[in-house]
Structures are given as C-alpha cells and as structure tokens.
Amino acid sequence: MASEDVKRTSDSAVSTIVNLAEEAKLASEGVKAPTSHALLSIAKSLVAGGVAGGVSRTAVAPLERLKILLQVQNPHSIKYNGTIQGLKYIWRTEGFRGLFKGNGTNCARIVPNSAVKFFSYDEASKGILWFYRQQTGNEDAQLTPLLRLGAGACAGIIAMSATYPMDMVRGRLTVQTDMSPQQYRGIYHALTTVFREEGPRALYRGWLPSVIGVVPYVGLNFAVYESLKDWLIKSRPFGLVQDSELSVTTRLACGAAAGTVGQTVAYPLDVIRRRMQMVGWKDAASVVVGDGKSRASLEYTGMVDAFRKTVRHEGFGALYKGLVPNSVKVVPSIAIAFVTYEVVKDVLGVEMRISD
C-alpha cells in the first residue's frame, strides 16, 4: 500500500511538472491560458463597445441636443420647429459649443452603456442559442430574428439600468441654458445636487418607461441589423456580397435601417422618460414643458399619468416631438455604432463578432 501511495504521488508530481512545462511552453509561444485569454477577450469586447458608443454619439451630438430640447420645449413659447431652424437658433444664441453642450456627460454615459450593451448582447446570444439548441435537440440551430430580439432586449435592459443615473443628469445638463436660474456645473455636481435635493429615487425617475422603451428599441436594433446581414449574405442580391463578407457601406445601410425601425417604435416612451426626468427640478419651468400655466404641470404621478397629461394638453403629436432630428441622428448613429464595434473588434483581434 505504501509503495502504491508513493507511486501515485510520484505520478501526480510528474503530471504536474509536465502540465507546468506545457503552460510555460505555450506562454513562451504567446498562447495564454484559457482564463487569462477569456478575460482579455472580454476586455477587448468592452473596449470595442465603448469606442463604438463614443464615436457614434459624438458624431451626432448637435442633433441629440436639439432632439431633447424639442421634446421638453414649452408649447406656449416655441422658439423653433424644424431641425435646421433649431440648429441655427442654438448656434446664434450659444455658439459652436452650444451644439455640443452635454456631450461630455453623454459620452460619459454612452461609453459604459455601449460597452455593457454590446457585451451583454454577445453573452445573451450565446446563452439563448445554447438553451434553444437544448430545447429543440438541434445542435446546428441558429439564432432566429425572434431570439435576436430577446437577446437585444436583455442587453438593453442591463445597459440602461447600469447607467441610468448618468442619463438622468445628462438630460438636465442638455436642457439647461445660460438663462437657467441654477446651473449644474458638471456630471458630479448634477448627480450630488439631485441626490441631495430630491433624494436617491430621483436618479431613477423615468426608469420604467426607459426600460419598456429599450426592449423594442435595442431589441429591434440588433434583430433587424443581424437579420438583414444574414439575408444579404445568403441571398446575395444585387451583387452586394463578396466572399460572404459585407462591405462597410452595406453594413452601414443595415445599421441605418435597424436604427430607424427601433427608434420609431420606441420614441413616445423616450419623450415621456425625458419629461419625467424633469420632475422635481425647481428651475425646470424656465426651460421646459407642460401646459405653460404652472409648475404643477411638471408633476406626474407615473408613466401613465405623464402620457395622459401630455396628450391632453398638447395632443398626440407631442409624443413625437423631436422625431425628425432624432431620425436624422439615429440613421448615422446606430449605423456607425454597429460598424465601429465590428471594426474595432477586428483591429483588437477578437475572434467573435456579434453576427457569429
């Protein structure tokens, strides 16, 4: 028995030495252990998502600001109606910097939001596909548009919830002007002021319509983008596909179509979210909204009440205020985000892209 124990111990030691030698050999050849390799891949995916969000949002920052201003503009004191007119007004009254007001806060929110969103979609897609194959017994099954919609919805909810306080203060920083009685000096000042004066729950005001809106918005973005790409690769219409790879221009077009569909469906909820975020801001009456009669018009008891008051006082069309600049913004923004994400992942050497 003793000799057998010694033999087992000796075999174990030899095995350990061999494994360590193999790992050292792999490391010298530039091959990382599975754990470190997985962590590096996750980090690269998060970086790609963050870069995609920052680049795409900065490219359309003036339109993003105009959209929010139109959403919360007092209907009894309208200063501009259209996209061009609105941009000219901002330029005239606030200069070039006014076009990008709130973009720093926006990027501080959108970079982690985009990183979490793209990474969550990758992981949710893998999990949903695994579960689908287990349920159907078909190991070769692929993601359907409906499954992609579910993965996108999961990614949107996770990303929105993780970064919502940043979105809350971003909306207020974007809305305030040089004439506002109180000025938020930046992200930290806005967060601490809202927390101190209105309580921690205020940082998540409008969260419910945001989550409800993000399900169709992000879900449709991913589902339409990926399904369009699959269809183009399989059907090869008009000679758009070469060697099973779409050109950057074609992928931009897929992203533009995805963004247009998603934002059109979810836009009314975005308007309601924006208005609910202004509730409790004692200086908001000078820059926003309601029926123009009193500060009480800014008070909503919930999402349904906000819908009801908005439609009653301003009509159904108020739910689509700012849709035109938003549409002009969404087309390049979503397209740039998807393509930038895939390009950066290629540059960083990440093996898997979202369509894989």
Describe what this molecule looks like in 3D:
The chain is mostly helical and about 350 residues long. It has a single domain (about 35-350), classed as Mitochondrial carrier fold, CATH 1.50.40. About 70% of the residues lie in helices and about 0% in strands. It is built from 11 helices and 2 strands. A two-stranded antiparallel sheet has the order 1-2. Residues about 5-10, about 25-35 and about 285-295 have low confidence and may be disordered.
What is the C-level CATH assignment? Answer: Mainly Alpha
Largest pleated sheet: 2 strands, antiparallel
Helix content: over 70%
- Total discrete domains: 1
Topology overview:
Layout: H1 2-28, H2 34-59, H3 61-72, H4 83-99, H5 103-136, H6 145-175, H7 187-198, H8 207-235, E1 241-242, E2 245-246, H9 248-278, H10 303-314, H11 323-348
Antiparallel strand pairs: 1-2
Helix pairs in contact: 2-5, 2-11, 3-4, 3-11, 5-6, 6-7, 6-8, 8-9, 9-10, 9-11
